[in-house]
Amino acid sequence: MAKYLLQRFIYMIITLFIVASITFFLMKLIPGSPFNTFQKLSVVQQNLLLEKYGLKDPLPVQYFNYMKSLVMGDLGVSFQFNNTPVTELLGNRIGPSAILGLQAMVLGAIVGIFLGTISALKQNTWIDYGSTFIAVIGKSIPSFIFAGLLQFYIAVKLGWFPVMLWKGPEYTVLPTIALAMFPISIAARFMRTEMIDVLGSDYITLAKAKGASFWQISVKHALRNALIPVVTVMGPLAVSLMTGSLVIEKIFGIPGIGEQFVKSISTNDYPVIMGTNLLFAALFVVIILVVDILYGIIDPRIRISGGKAK
Amino acid sequence: MEKVLQVKDLNISFHTFSGEVKAIRGVNFDLYKGETLAIVGESGSGKSVTTKSIMRLLPEHNSEIKSGEILFNGKDLTKLKDREMQKIRGHDISMIFQDPMTSLNPTMKIGGQITEPLIKHQNMSRHDAKERALDLLKLVGIPKPEIRINQYPHQFSGGMRQRVVIAIALACNPKILIADEPTTALDVTIQAQILELMKDLQKKIDTSIIFITHDLGVVANVADRVAVMYGGKIVEIGTADEIFYNPKHPYTWGLISSMPDMDTEDEELFSIPGTPPDLLDPPKGDAFAPRNPFVMKIDLEQEPPFFKVSETHFAATWLLHPDAPPVDPPVAVKRRQSQFLEMSGVNSGAVELEKRKSQFPGKKEGK
C-alpha cells in the first residue's frame, strides 16, 4: 500500500507539472495586459510595471522563472489585490467554497443514493416516478433558480434561515441545498440504473434462494455492488463543487473562490490564474486518489495487495 | 415411496409487450424422497421456469401462475405469503444455479455467504455458523477451508465456486435440491467432479434432487427418472432406462438421435429440424407436430393425453394410441430399444399399452 501511494504521489506531481505548463502558455494567449485596465496609468507607468514583474521577458524565460519559484513554493503576488501573496489570497477564499462544496456533495450523495435505491427497489411505482421527477428537475433547472426560490420562500417568507452572507453554519444551509440539487440528480440516476442492474444479477437470485428477506437482499447484497459506478462519477463532481460556483457565491454573497477565479481571468492577473488552476488540479488528483482507494474498500476485486499483482 | 413434492396442473404465463407468453402449459409431476429427477428439453421448453416457480423466484412484475398447485409438506407453495416462503427457501428447498462465475456476491466473503442461511434458518450464532461453514467447505472438497472462508469469490476458480454454491445450498440439509444446469458452464473434467460430488452428497444427506439439463450425457449419469419437456409441457416421463432405451415420444427420439454414441455410424450429427413453438400463440394440437416426421392429422387438431407405457413410464403422443399406424423409429432409437429388451429380458412387443379408447376423440387418421 505504501509503495502504491508513493507511486501515485509521483504521478500526481507529474500531472501537476503538465497542468502548470499548459495553463501557463494558454494563459499567455489571453489578449490584454494586467495593467491597461487602470485608466489612470500612463503608458510609461504601465511599461515600468510590466518590466518590474518580468512580463517583458521572452515567454520561455518567464515560464522558467515561474516554474523555479513554483518549485520553491512561491506562487507570486496578485496584480489586482494590492500585492497580496497568491497563497494567502487562495487560503482566504477556498475555505467557504470548500465547505459549501463538501456539504453539497455529502447531502447530494446521501439523498441521491437513497432516492436512486428506493426507486430501483420500487421500480415503476409512484415512488420511482417521484424520485425520477426530482432527478430530472435537479438536472435540468439551473442552480440559481433554486437559489432564488429558496431565498424567497425559505428565507424571506418563512424566515427559517438567513437570506445571504457568510457568518456562520446557518448561513450555509440554503446555498448548500441549492448546490446539492445537481449531485442529487446525478447520484439518483446512476444509483437507480446500477441498482436495477445488480438486482437482476444471479447472486441476488441466489440470495433470494437462500431465504434472505427483501431488506437483507437490498442492503447486504445489492447496495454495495451498486455503489461502485456511483463513486466514479461523484469524485470529479466533488471537485467541481468544492472549487466554487460563481453564480451561487454571487447570489448568496459568499466570499468564495469561484468569483475570484473569474475576475482574475478577466483582468489578466497571471499569478492568481496560475495559483487557482493549480489548486483545482491538485484537488482533482487528490480526489481521484481518494476515489481509487474507495474502490478498493467497496470492491475486493480491485483491492491493492501490497503492490503485488494477484 | 414417499412423495416430497407434487406439481399439479401448473400453468404459468409471462406478460410481455407482445402479449401473454404461455410458458408452462399444464405440468404434472411428483418428486419422491431421495430420488434424482432430471428435467430435459431444449432452451425455452420451460425447464427453468417450472423449477423457479417451485422456489417462487420468477420475476414478480411480469409472471403469473395461472393455475395449479405445488404441494410441499401439505402446503401449496403457490399460495404462501412471502415471509413463509422465505422460511422454506434455503431451508427445505434450495437451488444451485447455472453459472458459478456470477452466482456468488463479488463483494462478500465466502464465509459470510455460506453462514447467511444458517444464521437465518437455524438461529445459529456467528461462531457456530462459521464452524458449520468450515465443515461444509470440507464436505464439498475445498482444500484449506480455514483460509478459503475469508476469501472473496474472485479468488476461486469456476469449479471451486460451484462447490461453494453447493455448500450454500446444502447448508441446512434441504429436503429438495434444485440444480438448474449446474454443470453447463463448467469444463468437462470439472463437470464430472461436480456430478460425482452431488451424487455423493445426495447419499449423505438423503435429499431429493431435481436436475435440469439439456445434456443427455449428464442425465444418464445422475438421473433415476427423467422428464422430457417440450413447449411448456412434459411430453414423456419415465425411469432413466425407460427414457434412454425405450423412448416413445418422437421428440425424445429426436433428442436421442442427436446424441452421438460409440455405435453411431452416421457421417453427420442428427438434429431435429424446425424451431420450437411460439408460446405467445401455442399451436392447437401437439406442439411438436410441425417438427414431427411421424405427424398425423390428429396431432394438428388435438393435444395428445398421456398414454401409459408402464407403471413408471408415460408419454404424450398419439402414436401410442392403439389405432395409430405402426411407425419406424430412428435407427439410434431402435438400436437402444433392442438393447433395452435384452436388458429387461422381455420379448419384442411385450411392452403393452394400456388402451384408453375413451380418450381418443377422433377417427383414426393416417399420416
UniProtKB/TrEMBL annotation, chain A:
Q: Please, which domain of life does this record's source organism belong to? A: Bacteria
Family from the record: Belongs to the binding-protein-dependent transport system permease family.
Name recorded for this polypeptide: ABC transporter permease
Q: So where does this one cross the membrane?
A: 9-30, 98-121, 133-153, 173-191, 226-248, 278-298
Q: Where does it reside?
A: Cell membrane
Matching InterPro entries: BPD_transp_1_N, MetI-like, MetI-like_sf
Query: Could you tell me which species this protein originates from?
Result: Neobacillus novalis
Q: Which GO terms describe its cellular component?
A: plasma membrane
Among Gene3D superfamilies, the record links this protein to: MetI-like
Question: Which keywords does the record carry?
Answer: Cell membrane, Membrane, Transmembrane, Transmembrane helix, Transport
From TrEMBL, chain B:
**Cellular component, GO annotation:** plasma membrane
Q: Which InterPro entries match?
A: AAA+_ATPase, ABC_Ni/Peptide_Import, ABC_transporter-like_ATP-bd, ABC_transporter-like_CS, Oligopep_ABC_C, P-loop_NTPase
One matching Pfam family, short form? oligo_HPY
- Top-rank taxon of the source lineage equals Bacteria
One MF term in the entry's GO annotations: ATP binding
Q: What keywords appear on the UniProt entry?
A: ATP-binding, Cell membrane, Membrane, Nucleotide-binding, Transport
Classification via SMART domains:
AAA
- According to the record, the segments passing through the membrane are none
Q: Identify the main location.
A: membrane
Membrane topology recorded in Swiss-Prot or TrEMBL: Peripheral membrane protein
Q: Where is the composition biased (Basic and acidic residues)?
A: 352-367
What are the subcellular locations of this protein?
Answer: Cell membrane
Sequence ranges assigned to domain ABC transporter in this UniProt record:
7-256
Question: Residue ranges of region Disordered?
Answer: 345-367
Any Gene Ontology biological process:
peptide transport
To which protein family does this belong?
Answer: Belongs to the ABC transporter superfamily.
Family annotation (NCBIfam families): oligo_HPY (TIGR01727)
Protein name, UniProt field: ABC transporter ATP-binding protein
**Which organism does this record belong to?**
Neobacillus novalis
